[in-house]
Write a structure and sequence with these properties.
The chain is of the alpha+beta class. Helices cover 24% and strands 43% of the residues. The chain has ten helices and 22 strands. The strands form four sheets. Strands 14, 15, 16, 17, 18, 19 and 20 form a seven-stranded antiparallel β-sheet that branches. Strands 10-11-1-13-22-21 form a six-stranded antiparallel β-sheet. Strands 2, 3, 4, 5, 6 and 7 form a six-stranded antiparallel β-sheet that branches. The chain is rod-shaped and about 125 Å long. The two termini are 24 Å apart.
């Protein structure tokens, strides 16, 4: 349920950094959705309430001691018509339920004057029942989230008991103390049930992994950089939001700049993704050598007038065809340093410094170097949210080339502009866009669906405003601890958390 998403965000282990790469704001609208979905689960859980058999002895005038037993108590009706979920600054979450009602049916038996016995059944109607509890959120000694109930109070406003069977003159004699015994038992059992329900979430919170696997090269860390700021209307969290190479957490040569989310409350959830997060991705993929592309002629559309062979380049560099007549060519495009991404209002651009090495492919498949170009390129990017991931696409703006080294003598680099622009557009950009379309996981919402999502490009960060709803496939997993979890939900959750990369 949504409330557990709130708790899991609150209890992510803290990192040692200062500024956040990702900021999250949970609004009052989001808490209201948590209340609506959570109360349905609590009501279903309360229907499993078990009131143990009660027995005892009471002195009843004028007949003396009466031994009684109440057995087989079952809930026949239950309702939670009023509830509220609030924030406790510096602590966690408070839950209040008011005007709840419970109806019980059970059997009674009495023995008095040592030998006389009587029995029957009864119905107990409890109304104006209130439940108030405060839930603390923390991290355990392994760095996983942990929750516990700080306090719980249950108040039974009114109750009435109706007896069936037996001698009716006995009813009024012992109804008062039986009524009290039942009220006390209910109050005690309800708080135990609430505490058990909270404790049952801890094994599942332990499955929350703050390291989200992206692909074979990268993972994202979403640990907290500071304690959550809890006000009366929202929860603000700062997450590290940094890409790392798999198994090697090396810091980039730049740090996140502080930023804060605007005060908005039209959506349940706001997520701010900084330029630092995106640039840490560029640093990771460059360090891993993943921003390197081999381009061969079979990647060029057959209808293109330009192809990767020495005959095409003969027009611009005549000595190539003389030295390597009739050979196919291969290009190696490789970043020289990490690309730099910039967020401006409604605009995303990426600057990249690369080299392009051209080779002639010999008949025995060996590569003979022809020349090396320095390439400065600029692309524009569009960014969007796809299900639970942030995705995008780029288009080429401009390139600036210079000759770094030639193995075939001097030539005019500017004459190759059109060739390389075409190659980049038809071979490199589609590969980049195919990877960007796969997306990058957003933090800690693997069992939710995003709806009514809007994305704005702000100065130095992306602002995602979204509502959420419970994934129907994961309903049983969230409400019942996985006992009836569907395989589709299991795959979805594990894949999002990085346990099953590449599994569909």
């Amino acid at each position: 349920m949504f409330v557990w998403f709130v708790l899991s965000l609150l209890t992510l282990p803290e990192a040692t950094g200062t500024n956040a790469g990702v900021n999250i704001k949970l609004t009052q609208k989001g808490l209201e959705y948590g209340r609506q979905t959570g109360i349905a689960s609590i009501q279903q859980k309360l229907r499993t309430l078990h009131v143990p058999d009660i027995s005892g002895t009471e002195s009843v005038d004028p007949i003396g001691k009466v031994q009684y037993s109440l057995t087989g108590m079952q809930i026949v009706n239950l309702g939670l018509p009023q509830s509220s979920l609030g924030l406790v600054p510096g602590t966690g979450v408070s839950l209040s339920i008011a005007n709840a009602f419970i109806s019980l049916h059970a059997k009674w038996r009495v023995k008095y004057l040592w030998i006389i016995e009587d029995s029957g059944s009864f119905d107990l109607a409890v109304s104006e029942l209130s439940i108030r509890t405060t839930i603390a959120v923390m991290s355990d000694d392994t760095g996983h989230p942990s929750i516990s109930m700080i306090n719980c109070a249950t108040t039974v406003g009114r109750s009435s008991i109706t007896f069936h069977g037996g001698a009716s003159w006995l009813y009024n004699l012992f109804s008062s103390f039986i009524n009290k015994a039942l009220r006390d038992a209910l109050q005690k059992q309800i708080c135990h049930l609430v505490a058990d329900s909270i404790a049952e979430m801890n094994p599942h919170l332990k499955t929350l992994n703050v390291i989200a696997r992206v692909d074979k090269y990268a993972e994202i860390e979403y640990s907290m950089v500071a304690s959550p700021a809890i006000s009366s209307t929202s929860i603000d969290l700062g997450l590290k939001g940094e890409f790392y190479n798999i198994g090697q957490h090396k810091e980039p040569p730049f740090s996140p700049k502080p930023f804060s989310l605007p005060s908005q409350d039209t959506s349940m959830l706001y997520i701010g993704v900084s330029a630092f997060t995106a640039n840490s991705a560029g640093f990771v993929y460059h360090s891993a050598g993943a921003l390197s592309f081999n381009i061969t002629d079979d990647m060029i559309p057959s209808e293109s007038p330009l192809h990767l062979n020495t005959g095409t380049f003969e027009v611009f560099i005549p000595q190539i065809a003389k030295m390597y007549p009739g050979l196919m060519m291969q290009l190696l495009v490789k970043t020289e340093k990490e690309p730099i991404l910039t967020f401006e209002s409604n605009n995303v651009t990426v600057q990249a410094s690369s080299t392009v090495t051209a080779y002639a492919i010999q008949p025995n498949s060996t590569l003979s170097p022809l020349f090396v170009l320095n390439l400065q390129g600029s692309v524009s990017a569009s960014v969007y949210v796809n299900e639970l991931k942030l995705a995008g696409a780029v288009t080429l703006n401009e390139i600036d080339m210079s000759l770094a080294k030639s193995y075939v003598g001097p030539f005019q680099v500017t004459s190759l502009d059109n060739i390389f622009k075409t190659v980049l557009k038809v071979a490199v950009i589609p590969k980049v866009n195919a990877r960007l379309a796969e997306g990058y996981p957003l933090p800690a919402i693997g069992m939710m669906q995003l709806v009514n999502t809007q994305l704005q490009v702000m100065k130095d960060y992306l602002l995602i405003g979204t509502d959420v709803q419970l994934n129907p496939l994961c309903h049983d997993f969230l409400f019942w601890g996985g006992k009836n979890m569907l395989p589709q939900c299991a795959t979805r959750v594990l894949k999002h958390q990085g346990f099953l990369y590449g599994v569909e």
